Amino acid sequence: MADPGKLILVPTPIGNLQDITWRAVQVLKDADIILAEDTRVSSKLMKHLEIDKRLTSHHKFNEHKTVGHIVSQIEMGNVVALISDAGTPAISDPGFLLVRACVEKGIEVECLPGPTALIPALAVSGLPTDKFVFEGFLPQKKGRQTRLIFLAEETRTMVFYESPFRLVKTLGQFAEFFGEERNACVCRELSKMFEEIKRGSVKELEAYYAAHPPKGEIVIVVEGKS
Ligand code: SAM
Questions:
Q1: Domains of the chain and any CATH numbers
Q2: 226 residues of the chain, pLDDT tens digit each
Q3: Alpha carbons within 13 A on the beta-carbon side of 31
Q4: What whole-number distance in Å separates Cα of residue 119 and Cα of residue 117?
Q5: How far is the CA of 160 from the centre of ligand 1 (A)?
Q6: Which of 9, 10, 12, 14 to mutate to test the pocket of ligand 1 (most atoms within 8 A of CB)?
Q7: Is the pTM of this model over 0.85?
């Protein structure tokens, strides 16, 4: 009988291309099908890795429709690798729907260890790492205040993804809902040339970034309630 197919989630660099693992390169070379969030973004990585393969688009706007077809491709014996624009698929990126569909069908799913923004941010923050919660992006409008009220009681370290355009507003809301003295760490452009790590109270960080409007990608790590 032919080998059964499987789904492999392949983390890709969040900035520094040297962060790709040897195993990730091998899996991408060997895969029958590579699904990519944005084929233009990932084709640059493929070129850098000297992998000459067609990429199939799999993003939040089509994943509901394509999951069934991908599952049948795997059931026919294909090994499918999933990559996102950066970091680990399914972490604030497409992937969850496909993983769930595979699990429901009893299909083997693997995720290679590799780049993601949340773990380096947590580890470098200087805040307790023994217990933490990953909040991803806060809701932008509806539900934002309810979430902040809920999180005001959270005792574990919290990790948020944020856009540079909302950073100051979000830090201001952390000061309002969690208290001005709550410690935090803003990690900007991790693994890139202009990486910046700033630690301080949420009030101090709000003032700093109001005076120095940030660019690039950001993770905010916030101390839990003591
Ligand atoms: N799947 C990715 C992961 O595993 O981290 C996350 C994708 S999510 C769409 C993108 C967000 O991740 C950015 O808005 C930012 O909050 C965070 N991020 C990604 N790369 C980053 C970097 N190099 N430095 C800081 N934050 C980053």
A1: 6-111 (3.40.1010.10), 118-222 (3.30.950.10)
A2: 567 899 999 999 999 999 999 999 999 999 999 999 999 999 999 999 999 999 999 988 888 889 999 999 999 999 999 999 999 999 999 999 999 999 999 999 999 999 999 999 999 999 999 999 999 999 999 999 999 999 999 999 999 999 999 999 999 999 999 999 999 999 999 999 999 999 999 999 999 999 999 999 999 999 999 9
A3: 29
A4: 6
A5: 10
A6: 14
A7: yes
